[in-house]
Design brief:
About 5% of the residues are buried. With about 80 residues, the protein is mainly α. The model has no long low-confidence stretch (mean pLDDT about 85). It has helices at about 5-10, 20-25, 50-55.
Amino acid sequence: MTPEELAKLPEHTDDYDWDTAYEVLLQDDDILNLFDVQPDGVEDPDSEHNRFMRMGDYRPAAWFRPFSNVTPRDGRRPFRR
């Protein structure tokens, strides 16, 4: 989008509310802690760092559990190809 096109859009009080945009678009960024070598073991919900950050279970067995605030996809429904 060019600056001219952007200028034509109506203004809104939430414009530039990056905190809300981040929260809505990136529901869960705790996974980024797994790439940091400092808090080794952070994937375990019993670790001190995990409890402090209130991350939850990031061990491999929990990777594919749906978030509790969304309706899981019907497993009987096929994927589109």
